[in-house]
Amino acid sequence: MGQRAGRPKPKRTFKLEEYQTMTAEADEESSTEEALETCSQKLQEICGMADSRNGAVGLYNIGLNCCLNSLLQVFFMNRQFTMILRRIKVPFEAAEQKASVPYQMLLLLEQMQRSKRRSVHPLDLVRCLSMHNVKLLVLYDASQLFLILWNLIKDQITNVNLVESLDLLHTIQLQQNLVCQKCSAEMKKESNLLMFPLPMFDSDSHPVRTLGDSLRCFFAPEQLVDDNACHCEQCGLETPHLRGLRVTRLPQTLMLHLKRFCCTEGSQTRKISHSLAFPQSLNFSEILTPEQYNQDAQEDDGLYDLFAVVAHSGSANFGHYSAYIWSLTESRWYCFNDSSVCQVRKAAYMWRCACFPSLPPLPAKSGSEI
Question: Rg of the chain's alpha carbons, rounded to an integer?
């Protein structure tokens, strides 16, 4: 996962009640540009991270919820997301509060910020998720659970502007260019993604070894034939098509999903464990062709800094998730392993953990730097 290049300086935090008072005052004065500008400046000062007060705080595992814990830590350490979360409308009825995923996430974030302990229990949020069929004692894939959480959060936020902000935060906009291989008629389709599902093998079934190569494989032109053939209006038939992809907009926070799980012939799930190197900084204009990503036509610059890695250890049928996240307030990497949180001494070791997730986290030394 990456964020726009550039890391802001550490700033002070607000308590939940202070923030709600601030936004209420801004709403009353929303008719003036000065009031809106003041509120915007104060919003920039909100750190909104789980590590903002007493150091990084862990989450207890209460029923095979290591995947949930890892994703929650990534959400909470994302400045843009917590700014949106703090602006939600609090449900009035107690039953609605218990069933509101955004509100329960906000309460958990505040609990983590105020806690004097190194870990807290996410029990209320887990109960809330269970009302929406997200069960305990179930092994989830991180990308699958992220999509479930994202849809619940987005569906339960009533403020249209906040929903738009959520879309800007993670939504990738693509354009598919379909060319009929019989009559050469072209058809364009717009589509949205929340993450790039990146292959671990190229078209010749050779292992992909770098993130750049995996992105190039994803964007490579593809022949759509047989069952994947598309309907051509000019031919009036299902015909083979050549599909090309082009990025039309990149989000503030880019999600990349390495497809390490695949199905075998016997419908068994297998984990792909070969290493794949990825850089600390990513530049789309250096990876994709001008036809796939035209930087001059984009509002964004296509530059990202690595912000978080959600790593899986173990086999496809039984494993464990942990998260490696960059702390903006302390300018260092942390390993979040449920209730255990430690600094990662060297970035290179964290990259190895992501490529070879069976490795345990390296214990931190006092005052150590990455």
Answer: 22
Name residue, tokens 């993130």: 211
Parse the chain into domains and list their residue ranges: 2-355
Beta bridge partners of 177: 188, 244
pTM (two decimals): 0.79
SS3 state of residue 222: strand
216-255 pLDDT tens trace: 999 999 888 888 888 888 888 888 999 999 999 999 999 9
Candidate list 66, 67, 180, 232, residue with the active-site label: 66
Q: How many CB atoms lie within 10 A of CB 203?
A: 10
- Which tens digits make up the pLDDT trace of 252-265? 999 999 988 877 76
Is 47 catalytic? The answer is no
- Residue 370 token pair: 């990455």
Return the sign of the alpha-carbon dihedral for residues 277, 281, 282, 285.
negative
Out of 170, 257, 312, 320, the active site residue is: 320
Mark whether 66 is an active-site residue. yes
Rounded to 5 degrees, what angle do the CA atoms 156, 256, 109 make? 40
**Count of helix runs (H) and strand runs (E) in the chain:** 12, 20
Residues 331-341, buried b or exposed e (16+ Cβ, 10 A)? ebbbbbbbbeb
The answer to whether domain 2-355 has CATH 3.90.70.10 is yes
Total count of residues recorded for the chain: 370
Q: Which residue has the tokens 């990738």?
A: 172
